[in-house]
């Protein structure tokens, strides 16, 4: 088994609308008519592009307390630093295509920055798990990517050294996301950062908590691959 890749803090970058479709195994028709929460959103292109298409999507992220210029600078720094780590780990089976990885992050950031100032406080809401500033069952669909599971400690299947995001944090966050969800939640990734990929060590506890909260769960295949972390499947939880 190779030495796990690790970074010291949560990276503030996001993904494009098309990447969201592939990550979550959904399409635009699936989103239409639904009240959607992107949690956390990061500086992604998904919220901006959804607004342009007339979809009802809100993104939340702790970094949305930043002014546009500061958010842009922080995202640029985080992409550059992650890319440097990627290039430094070029022999890792995880980093097959660092350039493709960076290209889509910059594309998403460019789309985000065209929309962030106009949408701040409405479709971009500052919020930090495990507490969300939304009413019970406010959303029909919640999409949760690349924060939960990813940023657990390296020793617990994640990629963060000294992570504060332990199992208890994950379960409280999942419970909070469930509180604001009237219909369905989708979570990625479901696998840990080790090679070869294995089910994330928190996944089974997360599924059990979702069942206790009254959700049915299934794992649906995902074809997403950004040159770093190819997804295997999506955890789909639906209110029963
Ligand atoms: C790599 S980004 C993922 C963004 C996007 N969903 C995607 O898949 O590209 C991780 C995000 O988690 C956010 N984050 C950090 N701490 C958080 C917390 N306690 N609650 C919610 N989001 C958090 C960061 O600000 C960052 O934007």
Protein structure class: alpha/beta
Walk across the major sheet and give the strand order.
3-2-1-4-5-7-6
Bound molecules: S-adenosylmethionine
Which CATH C-level class is it? Alpha Beta
Topology-level CATH name: Rossmann fold
Write out the CATH superfamily name: Vaccinia Virus protein VP39
**First-last Cα distance:** 40 Å
The proportion of residues in beta strands is 15-25%
How many structurally independent domains? 1
**How much helicity do the residues have?**
25-40%
Q: Largest sheet, if any?
A: 7 strands, mixed
Number of strands: 7
Rg, Cα atoms, Å: 17 Å
Give your account of this protein's structure.
The chain is an alpha/beta fold and 240 residues long. The chain has a single domain, classed as Vaccinia Virus protein VP39 (Rossmann fold, 3-Layer(aba) Sandwich), CATH 3.40.50.150. It is built from 8 helices and 7 strands. A 7-stranded mixed sheet has the order 3-2-1-4-5-7-6, sandwiched between helices. Helix 3 links the parallel strand 1 and strand 2. Helix 1 packs across helix 3, helix 4 packs antiparallel against helix 5 and helix 7 runs parallel beside helix 8. It starts with 16 loop residues before the first helix and ends with a strand.
């Amino acid at each position: 088994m190779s030495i796990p890749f690790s970074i010291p803090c949560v990276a503030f970058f996001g993904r494009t609308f098309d990447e969201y479709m592939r990550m979550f195994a959904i399409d635009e028709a699936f989103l239409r008519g639904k009240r959607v929460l992107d949690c956390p959103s990061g500086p992604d292109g998904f919220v901006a592009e959804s607004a342009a298409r007339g979809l009802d999507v809100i993104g939340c992220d702790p970094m949305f307390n930043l002014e546009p210029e500061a958010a842009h600078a922080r995202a640029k720094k985080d992409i550059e630093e992650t890319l440097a780590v990627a290039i430094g780990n070029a022999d890792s089976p995880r980093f097959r295509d660092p350039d493709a990885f960076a290209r889509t992050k910059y594309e998403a950031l460019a789309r985000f920055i065209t929309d962030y100032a106009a949408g701040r406080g409405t479709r971009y809401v500052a919020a930090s798990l495990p507490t969300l500033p939304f009413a019970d069952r406010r959303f029909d669909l919640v999409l949760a990517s690349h924060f939960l599971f990813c940023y657990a400690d390296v020793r617990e299947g994640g990629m963060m050294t000294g992570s504060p995001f332990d199992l208890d944090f994950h379960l409280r966050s999942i419970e909070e996301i469930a509180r604001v969800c009237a219909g369905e939640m989708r979570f990625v990734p479901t696998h840990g950062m080790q090679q070869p990929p294995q089910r994330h060590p928190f996944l089974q506890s997360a599924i059990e908590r979702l069942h206790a909260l009254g959700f049915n769960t299934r794992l649906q295949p995902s074809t997403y691959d950004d040159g770093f972390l190819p997804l295997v499947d999506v955890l789909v939880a639906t209110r029963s």
